[in-house]
Amino acid sequence: MNENVLEMSHENSGLGKIEIAPEVIEVIAGIAASEVEGVAQMRGNFATGVVERLGKKNHGKGVKVELSEDGIKVDVYCSMLFGISIPNVAQKIQDNIRQALLNMTALEAQEVNIHVVGIIFENQKHTVEYEEEM
After folding, report:
1. What pTM does this model have?
2. Which of 30, 73, 119, 120 makes an SS bond possible with 66, Cβ 3.0 to 4.6 Å?
3. Of the segments 40-54, 59-73, 79-93, which one has the largest average pLDDT value?
4. What domains does the chain contain, in order, with CATH numbers?
């Protein structure tokens, strides 16, 4: 089996084992981060931009998950809206990701690091929305 999978350690029910791929954690964290008010967009690369223009949404974009002996480390790369309190929104993102991971996978993240890679002004937001409609 793939060694980049997180094996769940629940009571032995005799039904088998549960494994969660890091990509699943990326998707959960990406959705949880984008739900927070004040987050303008998640950072992606050229390939994710092309794929999204073709109609497929990449929910894991802007999220990097690292599995180690110490636990799960989540790095989130996002752009914020101009005029919001970056520390407050970053704290809400961390809380939302931790809660979503706990609710959906029963896993706790060791670290949730937020990297603010840009600020989006209101007129830029309208431009981005207009380009997505085309």
Report:
1. 0.74
2. 73
3. 79-93
4. 22-133 (3.30.70.1350)
